[in-house]
Structure formats: structure tokens, C-alpha cells
Amino acid sequence: MTTVISVATSVPVLGYLLSPLRRPGREDAWISLGPLSLVPDGRPVEVPYLTEVVDGWIRETVVRRAIVLRSDSDVPTVFSGTCPHLNCNVRWVDQEGRFVCPCHGGVFDRDGRVVAGPPPRGLDRLDARVENGVLLVREV
Ligand code: FES
Q1: Over the range 63-75, which residues count as b (16 or more CB within 10 Å of their CB) and which as e?
Q2: Distance, CA 21 to ligand 1 centroid (Å)?
Q3: Of 125, 114, 111, 109, which Cα lies nearest the Cα of 66?
Q4: Homologous superfamily of 25-138
Q5: Structural domain spans, the chain
Q6: Ligand 1, CB cutoff 6 Å, lining residues
Q7: Which carries the bigger pLDDT value, residue 32 or residue 10?
Q8: What average pLDDT does the chain have?
Q9: What confidence score (pLDDT) does residue 26 get?
Q10: Position in ligand 1 atom list of the atom nearest CA 90
Q11: Which residue's CA is minimally distant from atom 1 of ligand 1?
């Protein structure tokens, strides 16, 4: 009887403890950014999106920003709008033709490469694909 009770109580507890390991990771989640036709050619456009973040046992939905750059390719380039230095939001500055981070002066060129400032690498890219005219991205 003790064994039955032990098994009966341990299964839910194990399920709870292992649940973050069983759930699909972010890499499996494609997120819709909407119709690609709304993104103009040649000019980066910021698109906010919601994503789920798991930190230990804390799971929350957060707003992130993608920067979509449409060119001749069928699938646009999509950058994370988060600076790889200390996670501030980068902005596209038309007059300079560059991405600028206001926090510590990070500057990135049109291809997301670091031009100036402390960022240790270029802007992260999101996987992107187009399905039925809708732009889908996923964080990598
Ligand atoms: S957070 Fe962007 S340069 Fe520091």
C-alpha cells in the first residue's frame, strides 16, 4: 500500500518538476508578424511581438521587437531589436542609415554588424519564413 501511495504522489510531483524540460523550446515556436505586404521595400520596420520566456520555473509573456528589412529576396532579413550588449532597444535612424542603441552608443550598419560602441557582436537574427503571405519568425 505504501508503494502505491508513493507512486501516486510522486508522478504529479515529477511531472511538475520536469515540465519545463518536456515543453517545446522557443526554437519550435514560429511567431506571426503579420502580412509581409505591409512591410515596405528597403526600409527597416520595427514590429513588436509577444513571446514566452522561461527562466527556471518562472514563465512569462514578454513583448519583443523584431526589425524587418525587406529586399529583393523572397524572405526578408529579420533582426532582433534587442542590443546584444545589455539588452536595450536599438532603433533604425534613417538620416544615418544605421541602427543606434541609445544606452551606450552602440551603432550597427544596415546588415546588423557592429560599427561603433561596446556591443560584443552584431544584431542577432531571427529565423524567418513566409507562409501564405504571412511573415513568420522564431528566435534562435
Ligand atoms: S545596451 Fe546597447 S550599447 Fe549597451
Answers
A1: ebebbbbbeeeee
A2: 32
A3: 125
A4: Rieske [2Fe-2S] iron-sulphur domain (2.102.10.10)
A5: 25-138
A6: 83, 85-86, 88, 101, 103-104, 106, 117-119
A7: 32
A8: 85
A9: 52
A10: 2
A11: 86
Is the per-residue pLDDT at 18 higher than 80?
no
Q: Which of 80, 104, 107 to mutate to test the pocket of ligand 1 (most atoms within 8 A of CB)?
A: 104
Name, in order, each residue with C-beta under 8 angstroms of 35's C-beta and a sequence gap of 6 or more.
Answer: 133, 134, 135
Query: How many whole angstroms separate alpha carbon 60 and alpha carbon 40?
Result: 32
Q: How far is the CA of 68 from the centre of ligand 1 (A)?
A: 20
* Number of the ligand 1 atom closest to the C-alpha atom of 86: 1
* CA atoms 30, 50, 93, 101: torsion sign: negative
Q: Summarize pLDDT for 24-74 with one digit per residue, the tens.
A: 445 568 999 999 999 988 889 999 999 988 999 999 999 999 999 998 888
On whether the CB atoms of residues 31 and 51 are closer than 8 A, the answer is yes
